[in-house]
Specification:
Length: about 400
């Protein structure tokens, strides 16, 4: 081999060696360059609590990890130093592999995207999302207060609530009473921010519960009282009542009205029945319903006649009447069989529908005396036997 061939071969070998070194160096640099070991997991945390976002890296060497708030382009932390002025922000790490961004006392404004960044050239970064869930809250503004409505009118009850996710509104009645719809159908609950009631009746009156829930405890509710106004209505169960002289009785009527009515008893002459004496009016009241009772003790002839139950409120008045009439006292029942047979002293016998009967009182008395004598003899005999056996 001449010298020129040798030099060419040597140059080629040297070139291959240099290329191999350069490639090996680039491969080594690529293998040991810092990077992310996995994506940042999105975090959901409740309002007021602490959220922690984790960023896992490898081959960090002398490079640094930083956390940033994306929407404001604010640097929060660089390596182990907190740059943010907020005392709620902190940073920790695990062997410089996993870097944790801590945000305490969470606010709704903390919701958004956060960036984990490695200061390579070019810079490497990845994003994670922080969602803040907020329990529901019912707003006074936009939510109905207690309502008063005339019977027959229409009304809408509203309920406004905030929260994240947006709350769902459910309507229920207190004590599990059914909600009566305009078509007469009864349901236990209704969904939606507005409860419409058309042609209100007194059956609609009562407490309604507006319940807001979004899966974040606690669920909240507001009590809305619906009051229905209507003129008095009187119900009388017995309009004719009979009573014997000297007997005691109670007459009564039922009234329904709102606002609360003024109710009283009067006679047919229009005279109001006074309290005291043998007449003592009594009231048993509920929310809408009242029972007006009038006890009459030791009935006299002056007590017979018509009694009026009168009820009045601001929407109207009405009355109902009860007539008290005389009635013969019930016949006395004879307790003695001898009286039922019309016993006459000294009369030996008589022909009756039941046959010939003996009415001699003395014979009856003799029979009674004979029975008593036999009974005493039997007792004495039993006593003697016991003594002998002892």
């Amino acid at each position: 081999m001449d010298l020129s061939s040798f030099l060419k071969t040597s140059n080629m070998i040297l070139t291959f060696i240099m290329l191999d070194c350069l490639l090996a160096r680039n491969i080594d640099a690529t293998i040991h360059e810092p990077g992310f070991s996995g994506p940042i997991e999105n975090v959901t945390a409740p309002l007021g609590r602490e959220a922690i976002l984790a960023c896992t890296v490898h081959n960090l060497s002398t490079y640094k990890v930083a956390w940033l708030r994306v929407d404001t382009q604010t640097i929060l932390t660089i390596h182990t130093h907190v740059i943010s002025r907020s005392r709620r922000v902190g940073v920790t790490h695990s062997d410089q592999r996993t870097w944790f961004l801590h945000i305490r006392e969470l606010r709704e404004t903390d919701r958004g995207w956060y960036m984990c960044q490695i200061n390579t050239d070019p810079m490497k970064s990845q994003l994670g999302y922080l969602d803040i869930v907020v329990p529901p809250d019912i707003l006074d503004r936009g939510t109905s207060a207690d309502q008063t409505v005339r019977e027959g009118a229409s009304i809408s009850l509203t309920c406004a609530a905030t929260g994240s996710p947006h709350p769902q509104i459910t309507w229920r009645r207190e004590h599990s009473k059914p909600i009566v719809g305009s078509d007469g159908l009864q349901v236990t609950s209704l969904e939606g921010p507005v409860l419409n009631i058309s042609r209100v009746t007194r059956q609609h009156a009562g407490a309604y519960l507006c319940i807001a829930s979004n899966g974040v405890p606690p669920t909240v509710s507001k009590r809305i009282m619906l009051t229905v106004e209507f003129p008095p209505v009187i119900v009388i169960r017995n309009q004719l009542v009979g009573a014997a002289l000297g007997s005691d009785l109670v007459i009564e009527c039922e009234t329904e009205a709102y606002p609360k009515p003024v109710s009283y008893w009067s006679r047919e002459s229009g005279e109001i029945v006074p309290i005291g004496g043998s007449l003592e009016p009594q009231k048993i009241s509920g929310s809408y319903r009242s029972v007006l009772r009038l006890p009459i003790r030791r009935v006299t002839s002056a007590d017979y006649g018509t009694y009026k139950c009168v009820s009045k409120n601001s929407l109207g008045d009405t009355e109902g009447s009860i007539k008290l009439y005389p009635m013969q006292p019930p016949a006395m029942e004879n307790r003695n069989v001898i009286q039922k047979l019309n016993i006459v002293a000294g009369k030996a016998s008589d022909i009756t529908p039941f046959g010939t009967q003996d009415f001699r009182l003395q014979d009856y008395n003799k029979g009674v005396l004979k029975d008593r004598f036999c009974y005493r003899v039997m007792i004495a005999f039993i006593i003697v036997i016991k003594v002998v056996l002892i």
